[in-house]
Each structure stands twice: as C-alpha cells, then as structure tokens.
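Homework help thread (please don't just give me the answer)

Our assignment gives two proteins as sequence + structure token strings and asks us to describe the second one. The first is just a warm-up. Here they are:
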Amino acid sequence: MTEILPNNTPDNKKDVVTKPLTPKEKAIALLKKYFPGMRHPAIKDDPDYVFKTVLKNLSNLPDDIDTNSTVESYIHGELYDLLMATGVGTQFASARAVPYRYKALFISFTRQLIEEYKCDGSSQIAVAEMAASAYVRAIKIQGEMVSMPSQIDLMTPESNRYYSILSKDLDRAERHFITAVGMLKHMNTPQVSVKINTQNAFIADKQQFNKIDDKNNEAK
C-alpha cells in the first residue's frame, strides 16, 4: 500500500512513501501475480479453476490417440472435483454423508421434493437435500431400534442407554425433517404486504383481504 505526500519543492513534485506490507499481504500479492483470477488462497478448490484446468488439459490431448477412451479416463480421474465444483443440484456432496445402502433412497427422495416444491434456486435445492437427509437418518435409526432385542431378559443397562440415545436421535431427525419441509413450503408461499392504519388490529385465521379502489372510494 502507498501513501502520497506533497513535497514543497519548487517543481511541485511529490514524494511517495511506501508502507511495508504484512506477510499476509505479500503472500496474496504473490499469488495474484501468478494467478490473476484467484478468488481465495485455496485456488485449486475454486470451481472456476477446476473447470479451466479440465478444459485446458482436454484441449492439449494429442490427435493420434483414442480420444474417447482418454477423455473418459481423464474425466473419471477428475470426477470428484468436477462434481464438487458444480455445487448443489447433483446431490453428490450431500450423498457422501449418507450410508451406502440409503444413497439411492436419498437421491430419489431429494429429486421428488425438488419436483414437488418446484425448487429452482440453489437455496431451495439445498433445503430439499437437508430434508431428505433428515428423513433417511430417521429411517436408519428406526431400523437400528427394530434390530435391538425386545425381550426384557435380553436387555442390558448398556442396551437401554443405547436405546435412549437412539430415541433422542430419532426425535431430532424427525424435527429436522419437519422444519426443512416447513421451510420449503414457506419459500414457495407468495409474499403478502399488508398496510393497516389502526392502533388495534386483529387478524384471524383464513382472513380475507379485499383490495379497495381509491378512485371509487373518492367518488362515493
């Protein structure tokens, strides 16, 4: 960073006083010099960098090779970064947090929620993924509870404590699911702006609001 200070010399020149850069500022300046499009220090994780690198490497492939097999092999090697860079919508990132046997259910239910609630924005899709994740978690916990011994003589203090933990986790997963679905409904509800000029107002359930035509009012 520089600061310009006036100089009282006859030719009206100015002296430039340079403040020393901090180590952090030096590092960022160096990175920007070699990577002008840098958005954050972890440049290899920047989606733009991932896409540009893949396109650059594909364009440099020789002409005398089997293009299809080579491209397929290369894309498969970069598949993780590519899917992560695409953001929400593919359910790739969120599905990694779901056990293998429930992945198909999670992806299917997420897409059903996206279709049901007409999720267009990335935030709506993310909420749909969270709702599906909570639902799968509840199903998984219920399966674990069913597999536990139900006969009293087979139950132990340890199994009782574990059952109690599962019950709390199940309740938490169900609440997360209900909250996420409620948020999806709220995000699809049209916003209503109401202006009431009164000191006391009581609005009941299923209240109906009628638009008043100001011109007709003035005529009356």
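The one we have to describe:
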Amino acid sequence: MPSVSSRTRRAVVTLRKLPAKIKAVFLGLVLVGAAGGAAALVLAPADNSLDASRIIESLSRPQQETDKLPAPALAILPKDLIDPSQTRLLGKSDDYTYYGAPAGDKIYIVPVDSAGQGRSLGCALLKSFEAYGLKTESPDRTEAGWLVVPAGAKRALESVKGEGGWSQQAPNFLVRTNH
C-alpha cells in the first residue's frame, strides 16, 4: 500500500493532467463546500439556555414598581445569589403574589403573602427548564405556582386538568388554589 504522501503526490499529478474545465468544476465544488461549512458555523443560533428573559419576558425591560418585592420579603432572598433589582412580577391570586428572579444558572419563584412576607423559594436550572418548568407551593400549602415555557400554558393546564384548581394568571404562569 502506498504511503499517504505518495497518494497525495499522485492526486496532485492526476489533478494537473485533468482538462481546465474539469479542474474549474472541481475547484468550484471545493469552494462551495467550504462556504457551506462556514455558513453553517455563522448561522448556528446562539446558546441562550442561560438567558432567563426567554422564560420571564419582562426581564428584557427595566424593573417596574410592581416588579419589586415588598421590603419584608427581601429578607428571604439569598443576598449573594439574587439581585433584588432583577425580580419580576409573575402573577397574583387572592392570597399570594408571585415573583420570579434569575440567579446565575437558576431561576427562582418567590411566593409573597398578603402581609408582604416571603417564606419560601422555588428553584430550577435554566438549562433544563423546558423539561418541566418551575413549580412551587406556598408555605401553608394552600396554593401552588407553576412557571412554564412561554406558549406552554395551555398544554400545562391540559396536563393537570385532573388535579383541579389551576388557572392561568399570565401567558406562562399558572396558579392552583387548594382551598
């Protein structure tokens, strides 16, 4: 079997012996293939799996007054993880107001009672959010909040129709009352 360098030399000699038209076609095919490969690299979508605004759209705009956690609820936030200026209102029920917040590779839900107290947090990894979303219960277990993928609320509601008590509070936020 000839060596690699010997085969390469034979290929170059063979190419030199080809007519000019065939060489041009061959060169064109090589260039088209290279351009196609480069275009595939350029057109590949950016990885936005750690961008929480793909889940909580309001994160793409400045925080509004209604997005701010009440002062008593701020005490529950892990200060080294969640920036209070990043909280956003997700939805409300009669008893709780739900806020969402990104933190690194995670997303949180903070249920806040009518007195402004936050006593629990729900958390999910951003990269695996599409698998289930983020569901959390209030500390007294009277209700639950479920943040789902945008445009996924209808399917999520359908999946829990046997549980009862679920209602859509926002385009991708559901609440279940247990009382």
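TA reply:
I won't write it for you, but here's a hint about the kind of observation we're looking for: The beta strands are 88-92, 96-103, 106-113, 122-125, 134-137, 143-147, 166-170, 173-177.
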